Amino acid sequence: MTPSLLLFFTLCALLCVLISLVVIYPWLKGRVVNDNRLMSVNVEVFNSRIAELDADKAAGAIDEVYYEAQSTELKRQLLAAQAQSQSYAPVGFKSRLIVMVWIPLLAALAYLTTSDRTSVYKLWEAKDSVGQVADDLLTGKIDVPPEWATKDSAALISAMQTNVHANAFDANRWMRLSELFTALEAKPQALEALSRAHRLDPDNIEIAMTYAQSSFFVNNGALDTTARNVLIDILRKNPDHEGAQMLMAMGETRAGNFTNAKAWVHKLRSKIAASSGNRSEALASLDELLVNIESQEAKATQGVNVTVSVSDQMLPQIKESDVLFISISSVNGGAPYAVKRLPVSSIRGGSVAVSLSDLDAMMPTRTLTLGRESDELVVNARISHSGGAVSESGDMAANPVVLNKTQNAVNLTISQIIP
User: Fold this and answer.
1) How far apart are CA 145 and CA 138, in angstroms?
2) Mean pLDDT of all residues in the chain?
3) 305 membership: H or E segment, kind and range
4) Fewer CB within 10 A of the end CB, N or C, for the chain?
5) Which residues contact 151 (CB under 8 A, 6 or more apart)?
6) Can you name the residues that pair with 325 across neighbouring β-strands?
7) 254 within 8 A of 221, measured Cβ to Cβ
8) What's the pLDDT band for 36 if we cut at 50, 70, 90?
9) pTM check: above 0.70
């Protein structure tokens, strides 16, 4: 029997014994119990009847013979009641033992038969077979598991997850678990594990930087508020951290904050240029990045500024998991010339302002610039509950606005539900 199973049944047995003792507590001591409350009632009734007889005799309603007969009968009844006592027969040891044994036995049988415990048994087997290997991997004692442990990869993964949760305050274990998820291409799970590691050890720059990088790539090259704050904290502690500066430059570029992006690149370039050694390749890469940022900035200036508002009636219906789509497409339909997919959290104070340009094109050959030259365009905004690119019943949408050839700003209000 595994230690976990033994512990479960031990606790189950102790709990059931405790309940059994509570149930059979009145049986523990068989004793005679005199019902004094009933006796008191009998005495009161006797005194009341005697008083009635005395009153009737004094009033002449009954004669002496009847009075004596009734008094004698009442006294006899009182004595008989006083002589009786109500008692509870003691319960034998065998009866108590039966109750104390059967309750935990029935509880165990109920546990085993009410549902399928196959997954639990497999987890116990995994902990017994590869539990030590999982612990060695998570503590850094070994970097590669032995060949025999990899034959059942599912068992090893389960054992590692169980080990991490059993040591939930160990940041390094969460860090190594994230590496496992990354190897399995489970990016959301890897990011969550890194997030926990960072919360447990916020001063560890390596963990913080790894978390920021993972968040950047999971969010398709965008820095969310949490990742941005992590980078700012890293740069506060180490202002010359090259990785953090580069990530800030890329994040600001993705967000369309080109001035800030170029400032980060210039700062990073100055530091690298002042360092010793041959850093020509790094400087050339930064120069190329700067040209790319300036090119994107030029394209963005030719874009359309779109402000999307949500009506007061629609705001309470928005969920945290919803997604906002803003697109510019042909009035005749087809793939959009430019589209942005944003988390609904970007709507603050009931509105959000974005810029759509050639940078937001779905295909290199179908840009917003080409669309404005050759097609009649319309601007749309929609909040999707499922996150799908295709409109679905129940989504919230704004009335489309036709975009004029020279128009560079559009206001939309999401005020209706798609039937």
Assistant:
1) 11
2) 82
3) strand 304-310
4) C
5) none
6) 341, 382
7) yes
8) low
9) no
Phi first, then psi: give them for residue 148, nearest 5 degrees: -65, -30
CA atoms of 260 and 239, how far apart (whole Å)? 16
- Residue from 170, 183, 219, 178 nearest 195 by CA: 178
Residues shown for the chain: 419
SS3 114: coil
Contact between residue 244 and residue 231 where contact means Cβ atoms under 8 Å apart: yes
Per-residue tokens: 241 = 């951290």
Which is more confident, 198 or 124?
Answer: 198
Q: Helix %, strand %, coil % for the chain, to 5?
A: 60, 15, 25
Pick the more confident residue, 200 or 87.
Answer: 200
Read off the amino acid at residue 321.
Answer: S
Residue with the bigger pLDDT between 324 and 301: it is 324
* Secondary structure in 3-state letters for 145-156: CCHHHHCCHHHH
Distance (Å, rounded) from C-alpha 106 to C-alpha 97?
14
pLDDT of 383 above 90: yes
